[in-house]
Amino acid sequence: MLLKLEKEIIEFSPYNEQEKLDKNILLKLLNSEKNIFSRKNKICHFTASSWIINEEKTKVLMIYHNIYNSWSWTGGHADEETNLLKVALTEAKEETGLENIKVLLEDIFSIEILTVDGHMKNGEYVSSHLHLNITYLLEANEHDMLSIKEDENSDVCWINIEESEKISKEEKMKIIYKKLNEKLKKYLRS
């Protein structure tokens, strides 16, 4: 599976300078770092996120993330799993309560290296580190029942796509969400 992910990253066509630079770094780290799919690597490790849109392609599903105290996409740590699409789907279901989620694009939708500030989790301090993130494009029915994952989020809500990049309290994430929306528009036109 590791070879499959490496191949997918190599074949990924960057949308902008950020993705171009991050792609090169991801490939270097994938081949040089130990425990890159585990939180045992305290410097950097892979994560998977998803940009979940409704069937009408007008809204994105976001969660209110407890640690970051902000609206956020769904996603989480690979925790030894090298199939990051599987991770993205699992996290999306766990964090939203949705059971039926459709993969719109099997390929990587977006890549980003995200800085994570030191924080408390489950009563323990987690040092600042990097998330080597792979994002997938998913779809769900906005009328399906939603539920929160109490230890991670306090709300789940469909938000108009245009509002999704504004609703976050994290400036660095507003840039990512704006990019995801631009890429979504391009994807929907093709």
Automatic annotation (TrEMBL):
Residues 43-181 form the Nudix hydrolase domain. It holds the Pfam family NUDIX. CDD domains: NUDIX_Hydrolase. SUPFAM superfamilies: Nudix (SSF55811). InterPro entries: NUDIX_hydrolase-like_dom_sf, NUDIX_hydrolase_dom. This is Nudix hydrolase domain-containing protein. It comes from Cetobacterium somerae ATCC BAA-474.
